[in-house]
Amino acid sequence: MEAKEVLVTGGAGFIGANLVRWLRKHRPRWGITVVDRLTYAGNRRYIEELIDDGSVHLVVADIADREAMEGLFDRRPFHGVFHLAAESHVDRSIMGPEAFVSTNVVGTFVLLECARRHWEGRPGRFLHVSTDEVYGSCPEGSAFCEETPYDPSSPYSATKAGSDHLVQAYHRTYGLDSVITNCSNNFGPYQHPEKLIPMAIRKLRDGCPVPVYGDGRQVRDWLFVEDHCRALVEIFDRGEAGVKYNVGARNEWRNLDLLHRICDGVDEKLGRPEGFSRRLLTFVDDRPGHDRRYAIDSTRLTGDLGWRPQRDFSTALDFTLGWYLEHMTRIWQL
Length: 334
Ligand SMILES: NC(=O)c1ccc[n+]([C@@H]2O[C@H](COP(=O)([O-])OP(=O)(O)OC[C@H]3O[C@@H](n4cnc5c(N)ncnc54)[C@H](O)[C@@H]3O)[C@@H](O)[C@H]2O)c1
What we know:
single chain, 334 residues, alpha/beta
């Protein structure tokens, strides 16, 4: 495998940290720089041993800081950018959208400008990691494809949609070699405990009520983070410039059914009586603008690049439950 220098933005966040770990293992000749502002969602501990042994270089900076990003691109001859840094929590975007505009829109613009300037006349690829939430809510019986019109519902998804359009415009206008990925909900290790699966595990472990939005019948299409990381590298290596790729495992779950599985899994692991945790589920008012259903069609990715999810959902969820119960205290002091 050819030696490369790559920049991973948001590499101290959930998916970014999993990606950095995957790259370190499977692309040993690649030089990896992480730029991360270490917001509440980023955590040095996620990739600590890789920073400490010198195999990953961490730069703590804001991607919306033009001077800092220009300096970084000046110092390192990147062949590619995996752009994952973002404000990513929908509830927070409803409470305070400004940070979402700054990081997701302005930050992406700054990185695109750096890439355009530094890659003039030489190869460099910009992989922009986005979400299926840009498509809005998906009617029953269908799935989002790459041509589905954008229809974002939350400030989070609106800023991600804006950043996708910027990336596409830089390809069309300036010929930047870029690819966009839109993936469904990820789960796995190193996800911030404010997100559904780790939040539920933590509260159930502590015997606390777990809030369930609305009637709990919203459908999400779940993807194990390691399968997502493999897809990203596959698309970075072989995807077609200017093309969008949906990433999903066709693994749809109603929130309530997923929570029931988590309850039963936690009870089993903690040796509790059957049904103990299900009683902790508590219905609360629905989130405003809550999309009812997401479902993603990844035919382009499976057909053109041969990617397939490798982890079976039950095994991956069971692994994830065990991982949080074991690591929650050390990593987040929870
Ligand atoms: N988690 C999912 O299920 C999911 C699904 C689809 C798409 N995505 C996309 O994948 C990407 C990664 O998501 P995640 O779940 O790992 O998010 P995350 O919130 O766990 O991590 C985001 C990381 O970005 C960093 N960051 C935030 N603002 C920054 C800034 N201004 N400058 C530099 N770093 C900054 C944070 O410190 C954090 O480390 C995001 O772009 C998100 O939109 C996530």
